[in-house]
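Researcher: Here's a chain I'd like modeled. Treat it as a single chain, no partners, no ligands.
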Amino acid sequence: MEIVYVYTKKRSEFGRQCNFSDRPAELHVDILPDPSLADNFIERDPCDVPTQCTQEMSEHEVNTERFSSESRGINHVEGGWPKDVNSQEMEQTIRFRKKVEKDEHYINTIMHLGSLMEHCIKQNNAIDIYEEYFDGEEVAEEAEEQPSAKTINVFRCVALHQSGGNICGTV
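Model: Modeled as a single isolated chain. Structure tokens:
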């Protein structure tokens, strides 16, 4: 399947050729300055602004408690089958599925999940996403609280900084 479509036009359908020429500049709008706004500006002469072209870096070291960890993995290819059912045997899996589908608890669970799903779908279909629901309401001002922090957990730092030190951040 080709996803390319080539548009072809004859030279005569391109339209007229552009003819550019040198001409003097034209003034279309002349807006005079407002003297009342000039008081808002402060002239600084000379103006020296330092510029740093390198990346700013900082280093901070934290001593944390030692934490022993262990990595475990599992290769999940086909799962959820009882030990007596071989997932590679199509006949055994079909037999087990038929047995589970006849179970009364399975039927009740599927019927319950179906009604929940239907309720959610109807909710989504009832909402007009383009309607202004909160028209004219002002956002309530948030109470100004002093910022605070407390230690909840202590983590072992595993990220290495460019300088080789351990860094760790918690909020």
